[in-house]
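Ticket #4471: structure output looks truncated?

Reporter: J.K.
Steps to reproduce: submitted the chain below (449 residues) through the standard prediction queue, then opened the result file.
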Amino acid sequence: MLNSQFVPCKLYAACLLGLVFGLGAPSSALLYGQTPTGNQVSSAPAATDTLRLSIAQADEQFKARNLSVLAAQLGINENQAYEIQSQLRVNPAIYVETMPYNQQTREVLPFKQSNAQQVVQVQQLIRLAGKRNKQLAIAKTNTELAADRFYDLLRTLTYQLHTTFYDLYYAHQSLAVYDQEIATLRQTVDLYQQQYDKGNVPLKDLTRLKAYLFNLTTERQQLLRRQTDDRADLTVLLNTGPTVTIQPVLPANAPDQFSVSRLTLNNLYPLAEVHRFDLKGYRDLAKQEQQNLVLQKAMAVPDLTLQGTYDRNGSYIPNYIGVGVGISLPLLNKNQGNIQAAKIRTQSSQQSLNAYTLQVDSDVQRAYAKAQQTEQLYQTFDQRFNDDFGQLIQGVTTNYKKQNIDVVEFLDFFDSYKNSQIQFAQLQNDRMQSLEELNFAVGTNPFQN
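Returned output as attached by the reporter:
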């Protein structure tokens, strides 16, 4: 309790009352960073290079400008070029032989002499057993695998974008709470310091106020560091300039837009089967291994070589023209080793697919359970609690003015109010994070399918 000889107590308490009235404002405006007119508030003066983005705008800019996404998209085009290459046939080969010197006529390169010798051979390899079509099928599957990697990267980076976006947004709301409390408490400490210098308040009360102010400042600094990391991540994801400050914008009813109770695991599993492109990558890899096994069996069939020969004077008759057919005999090498290895790889890829399918189902089940738990906690929280707490703070201030409570009790309520605001913001953040984790596990937004 304050010293009864403190003459300006009523004036000081009235000042403190006005300050705390600001602290007891309705929590919805504070938590969503809005004034009663709906304008966004900021803990610092708005910079000219502040980029305000909604989640939809962030998605649009991310897909258009993210360098990793653009690079992965080029990988699809690269594999499509390999498809074109796999369709091309083997080039024909030509062989030309001539005599460099005619000893009888003593001429060099005697092309025009009737007794000169030239040989011309043309060869064309004909691939049998459909090898070209089988290689084309593998090339097309490679393109599908590149598309799988692209869409899985898109899923992963979108999850990182959304979670960072929400974390930065709710950190900004928490920062507004700290800024307001620190501003109020700093003025309180200044007033207490003046009265302590006059001998009107004890040192222990002033020390408690300063210690609590230091604690708030430290917590605020930690929150600022987290914001700095989040903004740096968003800068990379959105490929914005380093001087641009990203400010997320979110509607006040964002946590209430979706309800997990509308979803069931029986509906989520089929969605994951379709939209989890990492799982599709395993299926395509198993398909490719099966295609490779078919190709290796076809490789055991030897290819055919067609040949045409022209011999001017080296044969039994002048200007000899001959046609030949060549084929290797599959006696020693029937591609047995490659076929056996392809069979093993096919079995291995199928086992990997089965294992990863179980992993995806487990991911969906875990994310669904966590989203349910978070929603239950969120639904049980009475959102009027913060408003009631604000009114309670006013009552505490009135009792403090009447010297019915001391500074320790006042700081306890002060700290409880701060914790309630921060925890409510964190609860909303947890709610959005759990929904994003569910979207990540399913591979798409299940509320839109």
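Triage note (M.O.): checked the attachment and the full token line is present. Residues 266 and 365 are 10 Å apart (CA to CA).
Status: closed, working as intended.
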